[in-house]
Amino acid sequence: MKPLSLNEQRLPAQIWNSAPQLDHIPVINTQSLVPAGARAVVIAPHPGDEVVTCGGLLQLLSGLGHPLQLLSITDGSASHPGSRQWSEKRLSVFRPQESVEALRRLGLPMHSLKWVRGGFADNALIEHEPQLTDFITRYLRPGDVVFSTWCEDGNPDHEAVGRASAKAAHRAGATFHDVPVWAWHWPERDHGLIPWERARKLRLDTWTVARKSHATHAYASQLNGEPAVGLEPLLPKVILERMRLPYEIVFV
C-alpha cells in the first residue's frame, strides 16, 4: 500500500464512516461473486493490498474450496524513501515475508495457493502499463474471477493495476471486479464520485473480521512512520479501524 496523508489530529469526515449510501448497498453472497468451481485471482499492487482489499473474501473462498491465485505486482521496496530503518534492500526481503505471515494469519492453504510475484517497481507502474497488462494476462484463463484495485482509487499504482487487470481479464475471458481502497478515505463531500450503483456488500462474520485485522498487523514495516525523514505510517490507525468493519465492498 502507499501512504495517504491521514493525520488523525485533523481528519475530516470520510466516506467510509459517514456516507449514508453505505447503509443501502445491496448485499451479495460469495457464491454470486465466484461461481462454484471457478478460480479466484487477486491482484495486489503492493504487499498488504491483498488483505486490505479482499482479506475477508479470500477466507470465505478458501473455506468453500475455491482454487486461489495471488499476483503481487511489486515487492513494495520503494515505500520508505530516505528511511534509515527500512532501506530498499531490507524491504525487498522483509515485505514478502510479511505477506507470507499475513496469509498464514488469514488461514489460507499456503501449500495450494498459487502465488506469483511480478517484480515490478512501485511508484512507476503507470509507465509500464502495457507490460503490466501482458504480465497479468499470462496468468489468467477463461472463467476466472479477478479482483483488483479500482482504476479511480486516487493512487497511481492502484489505478494502473486496476486498468491493466481489467484489460487482461477481458483478453482472457475472465470476469473482473474492482475494489476501492483509498477512495473510502476521501472526504465525505466526495461521495458523489463513488459509483454506488456498482457497489455490492459482502458480509463478514466476527471471526473472519478478526482474522483479517490480525493479518493486517503482520505488515510491521507499514504500521509506524519515521518522523525524522517525514514518513507517515502506510497503515495509519484509521485504516486499521476500517479493517474491522463487518463487510467488504466490491464493484460489479
Would you mind describing this structure in some detail?
The protein has a five-stranded parallel β-sheet, with helices on both faces. The chain has a two-stranded antiparallel sheet with strand order 6-7. Helix 3 runs antiparallel to helix 7. 34% of the residues lie in helices and 15% in strands. It is built from eight helices and seven strands. The mean pLDDT is 92. The longest helix is centred in the middle third of the chain and has 19 residues. It has one domain: Rossmann fold, CATH 3.40.50. Strand 2, helix 4 and strand 3 form a beta-alpha-beta unit. By secondary structure, it is α/β, with parallel strands linked by helices. The chain is globular. This is PIG-L family deacetylase.
Q: Considering DSSP H and I runs of 4 or more, what fraction of the residues is helical?
A: 25-40%
CATH topology label? Rossmann fold
Can you tell me the CATH architecture? 3-Layer(aba) Sandwich
SS-based class: alpha/beta
CATH class: Alpha Beta
Question: Taking Cα atoms only, what radius of gyration do you get, to the nearest Å?
Answer: 17 Å
Number of separate structural domains: 1
Form type = globular
Query: How much of the residues is beta strand, in percent?
Result: 15-25%
